[in-house]
Amino acid sequence: MSSELRSIAIVAYRDIARFWRYKYWLAGQVAMNLADILIFGLIFNGVVNKDLIPDYVRFVTPGILCLSIFISSFSIGREVGVELRREVTQYLLTLPVRRESLIIGRLLGGAARGLIYQFGFLVFASIILAPPSPEGWVYVLATSFILALTMSSVSISLSTVTRDFNMQATIRSLTYYLLFFVSNIFYPQRVIAARLGPLAPIVDYSPLTMATNIYRWAFKYDVLLNPWSNLIGLLVWSLIIVVVAYKLYIRNLLRD
């Protein structure tokens, strides 16, 4: 058991170490997320209806916490996709590591990337919004870990569905924008209901919506939200997607 945990830790550490190779990409993503909060938020703060959103910067900040994890955890899928296309998996299979440990390590490595990347934004959110209570921090940390693991698993699943690069890129882009915009990150509930009509409840079941709701509650932007029900919903999403990612990834390893 201890050797399996050590193998998982080594695989996860390898992916975390590779994360720092993308310094320019990371710098660009940090700048983009900060721009979402400062520039995008400040501009829209003067445009949106004050009755719906009194302060757009405070409204959008919890959603940016979700996006920071979403974007960074998704990076692991690109590497898995490249390895499959270039048949690097042949090398991975020769390592003295069980396939199950390899897959779990990669899922956790991708999740760890998201948590590392999000840390600075949590500090930033604590300054812009009210710092969470001890109970609120428990919800924040649990939400961040579950969301990071979910997004890492989604990314790996998409990259293992097919080895065709163009098909991978198309599926990833569609999923990326679907998750990105079908959520309440940028829009309040009343606007979503007015625009989508009977389809509006779909947004409530998005994992990004659930995570954003928990962040808005924890950072005391909207204390009327129910963090527990949103956390349960997010956990259900995560369990389903992790199982799918595991099965898809091991299917490709066995094919080789």
TrEMBL record:
Segments forming domain ABC transmembrane type-2: 24-252
Major localisation: membrane
Entries under InterPro entries matching the protein: ABC2_TM, ABC2_TM_bact-type, ABC_2_transport, Nod_factor_ABC_transporter
Pfam families with a match to the protein in the record: ABC2_membrane
Name this protein carries in UniProt: ABC-2 type transporter
Subcellular location: Membrane
GO molecular function: ABC-type transporter activity
This protein's UniProt keywords: Membrane, Transmembrane, Transmembrane helix
Membrane topology of this protein: Multi-pass membrane protein
Transmembrane segments: 24-44, 56-76, 107-130, 136-158, 170-187, 231-250
GO cellular component terms, semicolon-separated: ATP-binding cassette (ABC) transporter complex
